[in-house]
Amino acid sequence: MTQLKEKLLSSFIAFEDQKDIDSYVHGIRTKAIKTFEKEGFPTKKLENWKYTSLKKTLNYDYKLFPSETKALEFKDIKKYLIDDVESYKIIFVDGKYSSHLSETTHDGMDICILSSALNQSKYDLLIENYFDKISKKDGITSLNTAFSSEGSFIHIPKNVQVDKPIQVIYFSTGKNESVFYQPRNLIIVGENSQVEIIERHQSLSENSVLVNSVSEIYCNVRSVVKHYKVQNDKINASLIDNTFVSQERNSDYSLHTFSLGGELTRNNLSIAQNGERIESTINGITIIGENQHVDHNTLIHHKKPNCNSYQDYKGIFGGNSVGVFNGQVMVEKEAQKTNAFQSNNNVLISDKATINTKPQLEIFADDVKCSHGCTVGQLDQNALFYLRSRGIPEKEATALLMYGFANKVLGSVGIPQVKNRINDIIAKKLGVKIGFDI
Length: 438
Hints:
- By secondary structure, this protein is an alpha/beta fold.
- It folds into three domains: 1-244, no CATH class; 275-378, no CATH class; 389-438.
- Helices cover 23% and strands 37% of the residues.
- Helix 2 packs antiparallel against helix 6 (139-147) and helix 8 runs antiparallel to helix 9.
- The chain is globular and about 70 Å long.
């Protein structure tokens, strides 16, 4: 048993004693901590974790429950917000909700925090119907369930089009030396409703941070959910992001994941298509260097006929970085007329960088259109020579080729301000100035 696992197990009873919650949630947590005790943290012995080790990440002496929170002002966090678009904001600082930095609402919908939903009787039915219903019961997710107490709670009733995006941001100030956070997000989008969500985890110090995040997202009939994850944390921060999506008929869910920073990032994404005529789109851009590690593990489960799914992940790897893509599409026997596309394309700009990619199709239906593929290569030297022959310096020419490589994914971003911010982040990461939008 690792030191951190032992510390978590011994802390659970004290944690539960501090929480004023009903017996239903208490039962879920108790069952979850037993699962974690049995399963523990994932290791490379598991097929889905074959290329990602948490050994170094778990070696820090993390503080589990920060008792002090450093006060932040808007000027301290402005650069991490998409501040040129009007939005709702759910801001957490050192694991605690910051009301003065947030802009929430209960006017015709609930854009608020999970602790309110867990502790108010008016939300009991929603919690019983949705909380911990679709999350995977493995060790790392069960650990989050056992300690879940705070995060975002978004409930959009039927026939509501949310008038502006929702930004959910978790800040760590580093007041404590090393911290382990476990935020929980519950997002319920009603029939014929629409919402846009921007999610980010951000460390503000050089101290070690580990985040084990779980999101459960329910897309009801004819709902539209556009989801953006900006992962551009400091090199001392590690993130395990677990996202579980349940889609009903005629719903449309899209996720754009931008993995550009952090020491270790693991994205576990599972989408279940439970009805007909469902659209699922997941795109990702990874640009890392030094000793960074990014692992995308995806599953789209086609259960019913006449549904579409689209995956397009692109990666650029420099330094001693390691990239992993393990994407799976599962098509059940009933899911005839499925149209599924999966692609993972990667560029290595360093001889020491590594990419491990394994796109997978598991098909039990016989009337489907499914394709998958992956590429691993280097920048086109002929294209680079052409740009340099036109007077463009090598650094800028390389950046232009990288921008062109990522263009297709960026082009599908629906919020212009998010697209511009990602463009800026990528330009800074490449160390160049790009004088146009792509």
